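Priority: medium. Attachment 1 of 2:
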């Protein structure tokens, strides 16, 4: 059984459950909280937070979303931190950050790959459950065989098209694709 931690948002009554191994950001978004973020890969810094109580592991300590001075002051990125205990965090939150479509986790099967250029391929996936998003929305794909941190070798990918229960991801090829699961999907603002 996977451990579950309670995450409290400082300055509000809001709390949410975060499964062991899940990021603070993705767990909160799936539970309908409006948490500030943009990229969900550690590049933009929109999900910066202060850890007031508890312990977290940082999956990407050198993420470009934080400047050295921010790291020195203890800032962290919610998209790159997984809890090791119950936590209290201070993060920008509110209805203005809520996604129009609530993200969810689901599994998908790899169905094919087409080489577009020497360094870019189109990977196709199929799922038993239709995605709860619209064309043009983004996905957070996790390819477990590629990186122990749950990151793909290259963060530059985009969903090309979505039809029924299938979608295609465009990503620079960095090895053989494997079965993936989608930890989150978010509609663009």
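Attachment 2 of 2:
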């Amino acid at each position: 059984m996977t451990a579950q931690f309670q995450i409290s948002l400082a300055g509000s009554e809001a709390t949410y459950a975060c499964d062991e191994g899940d990021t603070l950001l993705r767990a909160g978004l799936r539970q309908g909280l409006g948490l500030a973020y943009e990229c969900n890969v550690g590049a933009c810094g929109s999900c910066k937070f202060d850890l007031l109580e508890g312990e977290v592991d940082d999956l990407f300590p050198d993420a470009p979303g934080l400047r050295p001075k921010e790291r020195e002051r203890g800032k962290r990125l919610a998209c790159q931190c997984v809890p090791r205990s119950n936590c209290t965090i201070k993060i920008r939150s509110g209805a203005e950050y809520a996604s129009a479509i609530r993200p969810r986790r689901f599994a998908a099967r790899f169905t094919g790959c087409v080489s577009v250029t020497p360094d870019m391929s189109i990977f196709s996936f199929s799922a038993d459950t239709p995605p709860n998003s619209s064309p043009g929305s983004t996905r957070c794909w996790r390819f477990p065989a590629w990186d122990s941190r749950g990151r793909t070798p290259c963060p530059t990918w985009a969903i090309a098209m979505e039809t029924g229960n299938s979608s295609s991801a465009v990503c620079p090829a960095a090895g053989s694709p494997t079965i993936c699961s989608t930890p989150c999907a978010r509609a663009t603002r």
